[in-house]
Specification:
heterodimer; A: 14 helices; B: mainly alpha; MetI-like fold; 79% helix
Chain lengths: 309, 282
């Protein structure tokens, strides 16, 4: 920490010591951005913080300040289940996307290096999943996992003489399905970042490790991964926040069901406001999401700060 | 290279192909399955089969979707909101990104981190108070007003990516223009922007793709079916067609995905590089 601030001071001193040169005025350049940020970010965030301490609903205009909404949300017996399923959803998605993204980045890199066919095709197909609107991803997986005759996975099971599986109507399996669909959706992002990072790894270290007789997994663990550590951390932060903030795919895949088994935090926030009309409760959940965003921004900043040194 | 290591490399090649195939199947089959269902008649869909090639392929589902009152409207609204959001975001982000890249001022680093923090905030959090506020002003269910919110949520990432690109353009270019008597603004417009054109295109396309997929904001701020973009409208479609007309739902999905995938495949080279640069530069 002290080294970081020392470099910052040093840099500032250098840039200020430019003799008679006066810095250009940045304000007109930044004004549109600052205006948009104030109206559409700062003002709403301040209001969310304010409304979380009220009893505001969508059904009437007036409201009173109170701590009751916070108490109600925190003492709601279903809160534990929501946080639990959010934890599983985010944790499993992040681990799955990271590992699968790393695997694809590694084999695509090897395929390109050895001039094998199909690497570009594979990369393009993975990326197609990523540019799709979330609701459509839910629709696609809803059809693929369906228990009707057109459900692909159950058709394959039937072909193999196995009984159909209730992927979307069993409370435990529905969570598995939602996580699988989210890994399918988001892996491309990790693949892109890690593929770029792998190109920065020092090849001489590889060769040295190989000459020493290290196996492939040992090289990966002791040589490759430590070198791309900052990118791995940045990657984890970005996909954590993206998964935490998403609910469109869940909405069309399971609707949060069965029996609210897949109701993640942001879906609960939405439901509080637009199903129960309890604006204040939704804002309390929004405060949770804001705290997570703040925390993850701090982590991201630290990671990039370390990388610069 | 010894004979042993050559053999080992060939075995590795085989394993690499196996891995590529597994990835291709996991990511490709759901898409292929939807395409296959979209080409089947309703009777065909109710036959349990794993054969992706339809017995009696038909384009009837597509005809049905395109002649429905709502679907073409959804696509048009999506195009409108994407264009408005991404063009607006570029107009707001480009001068700011240039200032972050070229000018020295107090709080520059803090402000950059603040822009990054904006990117982390869920649009859901913003939409609650905006809904309440717009409702009292009578601004709900308006495509132009919603377009402004699109501009706001696309702005942070566009700023970061553009700053990265401007950093890569030598300052000598602007300096030379300004020594020749140009103001900083005209140096930016006539010298830097033309040089940055490929990057501007990439940022524009990424913003448009994100806008095409945006869900929360239109879901909350728009409600009249005539105003909905496809990312929300497909939910209506799912409600209407899921159980008795899966083929039509599948055809609708293919039509909704196609513009994004087409745009993406054509411009893939630019986009991939730009995205990685935007995400990794600090």
């Amino acid at each position: 920490m002290t080294t970081a601030s020392a470099t910052r001071v040093g840099r500032a001193a250098r840039t200020r010591g430019g003799g008679g040169w006066s810095p250009p005025e940045p304000l007109p350049w930044l004004a549109p951005l600052l205006a948009v940020a104030t109206v559409f970010f700062l003002w709403p965030v301040l209001n969310v913080l304010r409304l979380a301490f009220t009893d505001s609903t969508l059904l009437r205009e007036d409201y009173a300040y109170t701590l009751q909404t916070f108490e109600q949300v925190l003492s709601d017996p279903s809160l534990g289940r929501v946080l639990g399923v959010t934890g599983i959803f985010v944790g499993a998605s992040v681990v799955g996307q990271l590992l699968l993204g790393l695997f694809i980045a590694l084999i695509v890199q090897r395929a390109v290096a050895r001039k094998l066919h199909g690497a570009v095709l594979v990369r393009s197909v993975v990326l197609c999943a990523w540019v799709m609107p979330g609701v459509l991803i839910g629709v696609v997986w809803q059809i693929v996992l369906n228990e009707g005759p057109f459900g692909l996975v159950n058709s394959v099971l039937a072909e193999a003489g196995l009984a159909p599986v209730s992927w979307l109507s069993d409370t435990k399996l529905a969570v598995v399905s939602v996580v699988t669909a989210n890994i399918w959706r988001g892996t491309a992002f990790s693949m892109l970042l890690l593929y770029a990072a792998l190109h920065t790894v020092n090849r001489e270290l590889y060769d040295a490790a190989r000459v020493d007789g290290a196996g492939r997994l040992r090289v990966l663990w002791h040589v490759t991964l430590p070198q791309i550590r900052p990118v791995l951390l940045v990657n984890v932060v970005l996909i954590t926040i993206a998964t935490l903030n998403t609910f469109d795919m869940v909405l069309s895949l399971t609707g949060g069901g069965p029996a609210q088994a897949t109701e993640v935090l942001s879906l609960r926030a939405f439901n509080s406001v637009f199903v129960s009309f309890n604006l204040a409760a939704g804002c309390v959940f929004a405060v949770f999401l804001l705290l997570a965003a703040l925390l993850l921004t701090a982590v991201y900043r630290r990671v990039l700060g370390q990388e610069e040194r | 290279m010894t004979a042993g290591s050559a053999r080992r490399a060939r075995i590795d090649d085989g394993l690499t192909y196996l891995g590529l195939l597994a990835v291709l199947l996991f990511f490709g089959i759901p898409l292929l399955w939807i395409l296959s269902l979209s080409l089947r008649t309703q009777e065909d869909i109710l036959v349990t089969t794993v054969n992706p090639v339809p017995e009696d392929p038909t384009l009837g589902n597509y005809g049905e979707v395109l002649s429905s009152a709502q679907f073409p409207r959804f696509l048009f609204n999506s195009a409108l909101l994407s264009a408005m959001g991404s063009i607006g975001a570029m107009i707001v982000a480009a001068p700011a990104a240039y200032a972050f890249s070229r000018m020295v001022f107090r709080g520059r680093k803090k402000l950059l981190v603040a822009v990054l923090a904006l990117q982390m905030i869920s649009p859901l959090v913003l939409a609650f108070p905006l809904y309440r506020y717009f409702s009292s002003l009578g601004l709900l269910d308006s495509i132009p007003v919603t377009g402004f919110v699109y501009i706001a949520i696309l702005m942070p990432l566009a700023t970061w990516m553009l700053k990265g690109f401007f950093d890569g353009i030598p300052t000598e270019l602007d300096d030379a223009a300004m020594i020749d008597g140009a103001t900083r603004w005209s140096a930016f417009r006539r010298v830097v922007l033309p040089v940055a054109l490929p990057s501007l295109t990439a940022v524009f396309v990424i913003s448009a793709l994100l806008a095409w997929a945006e869900f929360v904001v239109p879901f909350i701020l728009l409600s009249d079916p005539a105003n909905l973009p496809i990312s929300v409208g497909i939910l209506n479609f799912q409600g209407n067609y899921a159980t008795n007309a899966t083929g039509i739902l599948a055809a609708g999905s293919v039509l909704a995905i196609a513009p994004a995938i087409l745009l993406f495949v054509v411009l893939q080279r630019y986009i991939v590089g730009a995205f990685v640069a935007g995400a990794l530069k600090g």
